[in-house]
């Protein structure tokens, strides 16, 4: 079993478009969306949810009115201004527990909080594990770990050869959790100064996980000099650029219709994405047209 994680330095670089296309072309894969803060892979893969699970990822403080003597110590120590008039605002509470520990009357409890949901679904391309974190909820890294573990369990139990993951953007905690145990990090970048800078940041992070890194440059033809600069940087770092996707209005049309571009078009972008799939899975690992 091989885990391929699709990453990018920021949102909006085409990461989910690439992931959806790989999912549509892979013959034998479990699919996951680990961008739990802003999951959107489902928009292109149209999963049918089979099982829904609650995610209890954090705790919030709760003041017991009959125990509280209104000394105000909890409000004084709360650096998040979550306690006013001896009541806790759950949106502001970070669950740090300082108020719980300082309360002289033990009038504050830390209560498990429903932080989101995760799902096991069917798609036309294979099983999919995905999740959605609640607004302003924490512990996305823990939820990512749960999604990945479930995907691995399914892949091992049912004999799938690949796990294809739409990873979170950036280099934060959920990205670190996504990279854990992965085999390949496929980084999608764009030909801009910010794109190169973000690529460098993600590469530094990926190096700590000893995964094989490959790069795809999206809309490379919109700034060809910058694309060459990115290619030169990758050569210097010993990293393979396995795809240069041109700007193609068919990609926009495919996304607006909610289908992976490789199923909507035979245009230049779709052809590059098909080649990226072949380089990722091999001819035998791709669906036949």
From TrEMBL:
MF GO annotations: iron-sulfur cluster binding; metal ion binding
Question: Which InterPro entries does the record cross-reference, listed alphabetically?
Answer: 4Fe4S_Fe-S-bd, 4Fe4S_Fe_S_CS, CobQ/CobB/MinD/ParA_Nub-bd_dom, P-loop_NTPase
**What domain of life does the UniProt record list for this protein's source?**
Bacteria
Which residue range or ranges hold the 4Fe-4S ferredoxin-type domain? 59-83, 84-113
List the Pfam families. CbiA, Fer4
List where this protein forms a coiled coil: none
Which keywords, in A-to-Z order, does the entry hold? Iron, Iron-sulfur, Metal-binding
Q: Which PANTHER family match?
A: 4FE-4S CLUSTER CONTAINING PARA FAMILY ATPASE PROTEIN (PTHR43534:SF1), MIND SUPERFAMILY P-LOOP ATPASE CONTAINING AN INSERTED FERREDOXIN DOMAIN (PTHR43534)
This chain belongs to which protein, by name? Answer: (4Fe-4S)-binding protein
Species annotation = Biomaibacter acetigenes
């Amino acid at each position: 079993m091989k885990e391929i994680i699709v990453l990018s330095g920021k949102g909006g670089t085409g990461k989910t478009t690439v992931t959806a296309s790989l999912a549509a072309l892979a013959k034998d894969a479990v699919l996951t969306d680990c961008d739990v803060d802003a999951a959107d892979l489902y928009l292109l893969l149209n999963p049918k949810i089979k099982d829904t699970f609650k995610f209890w990822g954090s705790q919030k403080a709760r003041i017991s009115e009959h125990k509280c003597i209104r000394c105000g110590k909890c409000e004084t120590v709360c650096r998040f201004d979550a306690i006013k008039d001896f009541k806790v605002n759950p949106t502001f509470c970070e669950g740090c527990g300082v108020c719980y520990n300082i309360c002289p009357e033990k009038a504050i409890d830390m209560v498990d909080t429903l932080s989101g949901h995760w799902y096991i679904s069917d798609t036309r391309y294979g099983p999919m594990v995905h999740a959605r974190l609640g607004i302003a909820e924490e512990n996305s890294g823990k939820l990512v770990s749960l999604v990945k573990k479930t995907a691995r369990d399914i892949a091992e139990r049912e004999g799938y050869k690949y796990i294809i993951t739409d990873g979170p953007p950036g280099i934060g905690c959920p990205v670190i959790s996504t990279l854990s145990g992965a085999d390949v990090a496929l980084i999608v970048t764009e030909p801009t100064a910010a794109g190169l800078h973000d690529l460098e940041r993600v590469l530094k992070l990926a190096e700590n996980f000893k995964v094989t890194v490959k790069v795809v440059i999206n809309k490379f033809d919109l700034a060809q000099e910058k694309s060459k600069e990115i290619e030169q940087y990758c050569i210097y770092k010993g990293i393979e650029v396995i795809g240069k996707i041109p700007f193609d209005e068919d990609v926009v049309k495919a996304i607006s219709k909610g289908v992976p571009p490789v199923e909507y078009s035979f245009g230049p972008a779709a052809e590059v994405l098909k080649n990226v799939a072949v380089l990722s899975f091999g001819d035998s690992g791709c669906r036949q047209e």
